[in-house]
Design a protein that fits this description.
It is a single chain. This protein folds into 3 domains: 3-83, Arc Repressor Mutant, subunit A (Orthogonal Bundle); 92-159 and 269-304, D-Maltodextrin-Binding Protein, domain 2, CATH 3.40.190; 163-266, D-Maltodextrin-Binding Protein, domain 2, CATH 3.40.190.10. Strands 4-3-5-14-6 form a 5-stranded mixed sheet. It is elongated. By secondary structure, the chain is α/β, with parallel strands linked by helices. The chain has 9 helices and 14 strands. The N and C termini lie far apart (62 Å).
Length: 305
């Protein structure tokens, strides 16, 4: 069995969800395609597909194997292009994971420009606020906020969001604006809790030149950034948020009002992260450079606002 050819065949069947269609695309007899996949399954000792008379679907082992095979095939393709001296643009599939809010409001609106620039790259974009195991889940890179403490990861800093404390006018009409971080008795926060461990994120304030963290009481908390902003807009409490474009729009239209500005904390860093042990392919590097351009423009706009 030619392992490389078998992996190519397996990937094509998985892509099309059909042995017959894969055979047509590969210009092979149906039996040849089935034999290659069966030989690959025998070699691995697992079933890659669950077959019925009506459909073909990946097993859990097959789905996990596919992620590795797609990356290997793309990397081999890329190495061959490089050695042959081709000037072809980056190509292949990349898997990226970003926070849900960033996916909706930052990456998705701008991604058509990236795909136009790199038409041979296919993007699988995951949008989640949960922690992602890049190696185990076959993810090429993630964009995340906050400092990266894992030494097994490489973190490229894309910039920093300014952080503000704010509230809806309806909340301030009811409770009054807080005079200082030390006079928050009677106020309540909308708290954000970690998707990893459920721990509430404290509010940060610069007091007498020192960054101090305060956990404020809440009636409602969430682990989703868009829901957090909606709770704030509805007047359910004080919020502390990065000055993203959507927040800047809310401030400009008076939907949200800044408070406690003299005690604003330091910036909230945004990083693009990938495994230290993984070769950074041209397609992932292309996305990383594009993301750096995208966020640079966002942070420049933030400074002008």
């Amino acid at each position: 069995m030619d392992l490389f050819v078998a992996m190519q065949t397996f990937a094509k069947v998985a892509e099309l969800g059909s042995f017959t269609q894969a055979a047509q695309v590969l210009q092979l007899p149906n039996a040849s395609v089935s034999t290659r996949v069966s030989q690959l399954e025998d070699r691995l000792g697992v079933k890659l597909f669950a077959r019925t008379t009506r459909r073909v679907r990946l097993t859990d082992d097959g789905a996990a194997y596919l992620l590795t095979v797609q990356r290997l095939l793309a990397d081999i393709d890329e190495v061959e292009d490089h050695l042959k001296g081709r000037t072809r643009k980056p190509r292949g599939r990349i898997r990226i994971d970003v926070p849900a809010s960033a996916g909706r409001h930052v990456i998705a609106p701008a991604l058509p420009e990236f795909l136009q620039r790199y038409p041979d790259i296919t993007v699988d974009l995951g949008c989640t606020d949960r922690p992602v195991d890049l190696v185990a889940e076959g993810v090429d890179c993630v964009i995340r906020g906050g400092n990266v403490l894992d030494d097994s990861l490489v973190a490229r800093r894309l910039g920093d969001y300014e952080v503000i404390t704010c509230a809806a006018p309806s909340y301030l009409e009811k409770h009054g604006p807080p005079a200082s971080p030390l006079m928050l008795q009677g106020h309540q926060a909308i708290n954000f809790f970690s998707a990893r461990n459920g721990k509430v994120m404290p509010f940060d304030f610069m007091i007498d030149g020192q960054l101090q963290a305060m956990v404020l009481p809440h009636q409602v908390a969430t682990n989703d950034a868009d829901t957090y902003l909606e709770f704030t807009r509805r007047g359910l409490g004080l919020a502390q948020v990065p000055r993203s474009k959507i927040v800047l729009d809310m401030l400009a239209t008076g939907v949200l009002v800044p408070v406690l500005e003299p005690w604003s904390p330091s910036g909230f860093p945004i990083y693009l992260v990938y495994p230290r042990t993984r070769h950074l392919s041209a397609r992932v590097r292309a996305f990383a450079d594009w993301a750096a351009e995208l966020y640079s423009a966002i942070f420049d706009e933030q400074k002008r606002a």
